[in-house]
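Researcher: Sequence recovery benchmark, item below. Answer with residues only.
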């Protein structure tokens, strides 16, 4: 391979450079080898092996049931496919909130067994001890504030977070704490656009939004949602770039018709 063909891997340092020069960061989820290969080749900057795998891959109502072993399985499959993007793997519910030793051993398992570049954790002040311990082991962390799906039973609904002053103040202070601790980026989920812009303006590290408006440093979506594979989920922040559900059903329908009508396989499609 010539020097010119060499792929420059995205690093946490490159993401901060992108923020400095005002270049927006494009991030998407992936959970398996084939999809991650396509997403990486298309040029996305960050691939998140999100615990949304619990919903879109495993069919669970919430992200709570997915296990560390399952996240490691998805992470390993994705990392094998990716040449350029920075790969971040979610620490699943119950593997870091209890105590910081457990948090560190969960993060170490992810880094060792998947070879991912970083982990993502939901929460601010409440999980600071875990954040510090993981960072002290040299593991890069992406924070996650605003709507935190792992705390859905505390929130009660998936509605917009931090609309009230008190919750907005806490979010700002948590974001600053995570930055001071040494997180390299933060995801803000489903908050008012003006709050997203304010936090991105206050922090030096990149702020990636999902339903946090246009004033943040980058955007993230769940790949199944933006490709139109999931059909029931239509929050305001979601832009669908394809209607893959219709395409897949159409193709499968054609295959069924061809098999039943003896059109497939034809002469050229057999040995
Ligand atoms: O799990 C996930 O997909 C996420 C994104 C929604 C940011 O955390």
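Model:
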């Amino acid at each position: 391979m010539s020097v010119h063909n060499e792929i420059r891997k995205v690093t946490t340092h490159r993401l901060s450079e992108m923020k400095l020069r005002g270049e927006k960061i494009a991030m998407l989820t992936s959970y398996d080898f084939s999809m991650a290969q396509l997403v990486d080749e298309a040029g996305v900057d960050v691939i998140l092996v999100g615990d949304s795998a619990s919903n879109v891959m495993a069919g669970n109502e919430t992200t709570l049931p997915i296990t560390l072993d399952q996240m490691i399985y998805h992470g390993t499959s994705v990392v094998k496919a990716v040449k350029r993007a920075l790969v971040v793997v979610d620490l699943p519910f119950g593997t870091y909130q209890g105590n910081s030793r457990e948090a560190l051993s969960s993060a170490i398992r992810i880094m060792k067994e998947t070879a991912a570049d970083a982990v993502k954790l939901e929460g601010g002040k409440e999980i600071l001890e875990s954040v510090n311990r993981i960072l002290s082991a040299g593991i890069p962390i992406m924070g996650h504030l605003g709507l935190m799906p792992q705390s859905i039973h505390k929130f009660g609904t998936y509605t917009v977070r931090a609309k009230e002053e008190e919750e907005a103040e806490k979010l700002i202070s948590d974001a600053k704490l995570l930055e001071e601790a040494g997180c390299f980026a933060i995801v803000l989920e489903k908050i008012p656009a003006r709050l997203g812009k304010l936090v991105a303006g206050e922090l030096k590290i990149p702020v990636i939004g999902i339903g946090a408006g246009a004033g943040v440093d980058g955007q993230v979506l769940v790949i199944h949602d933006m490709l139109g594979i999931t059909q029931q989920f239509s929050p305001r922040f979601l832009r669908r770039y394809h209607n893959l559900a219709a395409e897949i059903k159409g193709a499968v329908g054609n295959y069924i018709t061809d098999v039943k009508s003896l059109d497939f396989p034809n002469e050229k499609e057999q040995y």
